[in-house]
Design a protein that fits this description.
Length: 322
């Protein structure tokens, strides 16, 4: 018995509908007709904001990572808390994901230029690319067409990897989002820009373990420098901390060079050197910035595919569902 052509066709369509890879939904030319000025509007907003506040690039890059790791890249990180729900923004590691106003500003301009067209999730993804390029890093074409989420829960920030994770835990955390060991090491290179508060690394500086006061994987002189920046006791400012690498506003491969000399700030950074699965990648990038840039662009595209929503709404306001 032969199937009719029409039935076979319907079956093929049905199979595609079930197993359609999420990447298939996204497209580099998604707004070419509906909002041709979208990327220019976002770039200009991000560029101007960076001129006024040099902390903006690192914050927007981190925002993209957090957004994608919690509920997929759906701009849930921008939603405000309500009377009955505490949102991601107000969840535990809320110490440095700020600069929401930049995305809000870009989105407001986009609503004027092309109402209800460009999703907040796409604005975050494009802004993350722009801050990397503006800081001297690579450029890549951002795939677009993400829809926005309507749910944001503070307790889900617990699913973000903490800076105390070892390599096995990091690999698992990234694998759960379809990201490889290499993606993990490459995206950790995002720590080539930005700042950390003392609370994120001071467990490495004293009382590290039963046997060692200071984390033995940390360069001793570097540990002393960090200790001075993070005096114990209550009389340190709430902004006490350190830059993540010595060229903290430049996107380069210095992060990997510092790891080679024991100067990674987080345990999770330094651990990449202590495991054969990741060590070779650190060494490669430390001596080949071009390779790092090429792979970073590729891994950011993969990060931007995590848990993408193909159906749903384009939020009008960044802070509320429609
Ligand atoms: C591999 C697992 C990761 C861990 C454990 C981790 C952890 C952290 C921690 C603890 C901070 C400092 C927060 C603070 O004290 O203010 C931080 C900052 C930062 N992270 Fe990560 N991160 C990871 C991956 C990533 C990825 C994949 C990116 C982007 C591609 C990224 C980009 C950043 C940036 C740019 C900052 C600086 C933020 C600022 O200056 O405000 N991180 N990260
Ligand atoms: C540039 O950024 C500053 C600071 O965020 C803001 O006050 C100003 O309105 C912006 N200008 C434009 C043209 O976007
Ligand atoms: C961070 O989150 C905690 C717990 O949700 C909250 O109590 C605190 O006010 C927040 N801190 C800042 C600076 O927003
Ligand atoms: C987070 O809280 C929601 C209710 O607000 C609950 O349904 C969910 O199970 C919690 N998730 C985790 C990971 O604790
Ligand atoms: C990583 O940490 C987990 C949980 O603490 C532990 O079970 C595991 O043995 C550690 N793995 C390595 C390679 O240190
Ligand atoms: C180190 O840990 C021990 C026992 O856990 C504690 O008694 C001591 O006060 C700690 N020292 C510092 C400097 O935090």
């Amino acid at each position: 018995m032969a199937f009719s052509k029409g039935l076979v066709f319907a079956m093929v369509i049905a199979i595609f509908a079930i197993v359609k890879p999420s990447e298939g939904a996204l497209n580099a030319h998604y707004y070419d007709r509906s909002c041709p000025a979208a990327e220019k509007i976002i770039l200009e907003t991000v560029r101007n904001a960076t001129l006024y506040d040099p902390k903006v690039p690192a914050r927007l890059l981190r925002m993209f990572f957090h957004d994608c790791f919690i509920r997929g890249c759906d701009a849930s990180i921008l939603l405000d808390s309500t009377r009955s729900n505490q949102a991601e923004k107000d969840g535990p590691p809320n110490i440095s994901v700020r600069s929401f106003y930049v995305i809000e500003d870009a989105k407001r301009k986009l609503e004027k230029a092309c109402p209800r067209t460009v999703s907040c999730a796409d604005v975050i993804a494009i802004a993350a690319r722009d801050v990397v390029t503006l800081s001297g890093g690579p450029y890549w074409s951002v795939l677009k067409g993400r829809k926005d989420g309507t749910v944001s829960r503070a307790n889900e920030t617990r699913n973000l990897p903490p800076p105390t994770f070892n390599v096995s835990q990091l690999i698992q955390s990234f694998a759960a989002r379809g990201l490889s060991v290499k993606d993990m090491v490459t995206l950790s290179g995002g720590h080539t820009i930005g700042f950390s508060h003392c609370s994120s690394f001071e467990s490495r500086l004293q009382n590290f373990s039963k046997f060692q006061d200071i984390d033995p994987s940390m360069n001793y002189a570097f540990a002393q420098t960090l200790k001075k920046k993070c005096p114990r006791s209550s009389n340190r400012g709430k902004n006490a901390g350190t830059v993540l690498d010595s060229t903290a506003s430049v996107f380069d491969n210095v992060y990997y060079k510092l790891i080679l000399s024991g100067k990674g700030v987080f345990g999770s950074d330094q651990a990449l050197l202590g495991d054969s699965r990741t060590k070779w990648i650190v060494e490669t990038y430390a001596q080949d910035q071009k390779a790092f840039f090429r792979e970073f662009a590729a891994s950011m595209v993969k990060l931007g595919n995590v848990g993408v929503k193909e159906t749903g709404q384009v939020r009008i306001y960044t802070r509320f569902a429609n």
